[in-house]
Amino acid sequence: MPLSPRFLPLLFPLVLLTACSSLPPLPATPTTAQRPTPTATSGSVSFSPEPVGALPDWQQQDLTTSLQALRQSCRVVARQPQWSAPCQGVSALASADNAGIHQFFEAHFTAWRMHDGARDSGLITGYYEPILNGSRSRSAATPYPLYGVPDDLLSLTLPASARNTGPWVARRVANNRLALVPGATQAGPGEVLVNPADFPPESRALLKGRIDNGRLVPYYTRADLAAGRGVDRAPVLAWVEDSVELFFLQIQGAGRIQLDDGSTLRVGVGDNNGYGYQSIGRWLADHGEMPLSAASMSGIQNWVRLHPDRQQALFNVNPRYIFFRTLPGNDDGPLGALGVPLTDGYSIAVDPHYIPLGTPVYLATTQPHSQAPLNRLMHAQDTGNAIRGALRADFFWGFGAEAGMNAGGMKQAGSMWLLLPNGMSPSL
């Protein structure tokens, strides 16, 4: 989502999703006169402690909605010893007591500012939950299929020691999951040969494939599926009006389909075809089709509308394909990688190598297409294939057209602080 589950992931980043070397400047924020020596460091990434009360615009923050998001996180992180007591305290707070919520965080948490070498700000993008028009049946108005998970799509997790050697023998241990057969060199009945060299190097930790003549081979690419290869093995969950919106639904990892019978179908990432994400925004910029600064979701959509004959070729630049599953229909946000519903405007997708899921993160950035400050206590509840690095986040705006406009226009500089219970340090 991202969503990642962002979804997978999911989870998204809207389409550009590239490291930015010329970010707009972040407005000056109050800091301590001399930053304490970082106490948690890994490579170029480090964290330095600061009082929660010294965070930019902290005293002006309305934390009541952020508290709701934290309670969602506590459904998961409260199982960890360091979080048990804070989550018990959170459950006792009055939801509307903004002053009490401030006091709670100031008394029980330490803010850890993130640094990557000399940088203490990075790229903040946005994502959202789109809503598409569709139908349960195919028609001239709804010709584009939204596919569920194919029944021949198989997964195999390879240990690091097996990713560049082989071939190996695997057998099915669940409906769609394979496992290596220790010591086997030849496939017996019900077993399959696996050669990691057949798969892209970046995809060898988790192979996604199908069986062809006794071998596990890579699953179909986006171009293959667009040409009709393998689609007979995938159920159609709905038919939608717009192929461009369907592509961006895959980027976002979750969305809603407004059906012609008046009902709403909610969908999220079910699985993927195993290929790495490739940015079509970057491709357009690299090929001189538009400046990199214009390669936002809305900019790419405009380009596609002006070049309908090149639409599928552009989409095929990204071989990754998302298959969906239906989700319960309710008013909660989509499920993020943490396994809890995302909260509009208070959830972010992060790189879990640097920010553990469930951690409160204070974000100091600016509004989309603006230098107006956007400082807020967010919660790391999702991941995304293109959200990589310590100073990188994807801001969840909610669902619908307005959320899409904000998400599509967000490409801001931002600084981040992890808020951890007193006595707990960042772990890298």
Automatic annotation (TrEMBL):
Leader peptide range in chain numbering: 1-28
Gene Ontology BP annotations: cell wall organization; peptidoglycan catabolic process; peptidoglycan turnover
Catalytic activity: Exolytic cleavage of the (1->4)-beta-glycosidic linkage between N-acetylmuramic acid (MurNAc) and N-acetylglucosamine (GlcNAc) residues in peptidoglycan, from either the reducing or the non-reducing ends of the peptidoglycan chains, with concomitant formation of a 1,6-anhydrobond in the MurNAc residue
Region (Disordered), start-end ranges: 28-48
A single cellular component GO annotation: outer membrane
Lytic transglycosylase MltA domain sequence ranges: 131-325
Tagged with keyword Coiled coil: no
Protein keywords: Cell wall biogenesis/degradation, Lyase, Signal
EC number: 4.2.2.n1
GO function term, MF aspect, one: hydrolase activity, hydrolyzing O-glycosyl compounds
Official protein name in the record: peptidoglycan lytic exotransglycosylase
Lineage of origin: Bacteria, Pseudomonadati, Pseudomonadota, Betaproteobacteria, Neisseriales
